[in-house]
Amino acid sequence: MTIAKDGLKFLLPALGLGIAFLALGWWPAAVPFILLALAFGFFFRDPRRAVPADPGLIVSPADGKVLAVESLDGLPELPELPGRSPLTRITIFLSLLDVHLTRAPLAGAVRETRYTPGQFLPAFREEAGRVNESNAIVLDGPRTTVHIKQIVGVAARRIKVFVRAGQRVERGEKIGLMYFGSRVELTLPPSCRVRVEPGAKVKGGMTVIAEETS
Q: What is the structure's pLDDT at 211?
């Protein structure tokens, strides 16, 4: 199993202490650290994903459960789109059991990334998307521009972004990481047809959640 390199700073100290206590014969002290290292390894796992080949498909930016699919009149980060027809926002909740890497839903160029400080409400609450600490990524594809928002929750207190403005990414490529429970919001233009419903389980970089129609 591959581990995201950002997780090694959590895993290795716990594992090192566990091994050290075992070497000293202090197994009651070693067991909690060994278990903690295994838990970190599970949380920061980085599984390979089979990305769909059709360039018109948009894949999920994260693992988790779809909380909502809703229409928006507009989005400040995408000023060129309001007025044509409603945008669509897909909200995905990541539990502690989900892979927490964020992936590009389509191939394109990063227009901008924007960090916003905020609160740490539970990520499944509706208002968390508005008031919690977050990082937004605007991604311009050949035909479609999407807005990806990483939002931390009550346990997650850090967002890691792997990309910068002007960088080109491939669909399914890893673009960020959130620690210990969070949510991701993906906002799509009216030219996209959504293919998931609330309650659906999705896999980042693999599950098709929308398709370009023009």
A: 94
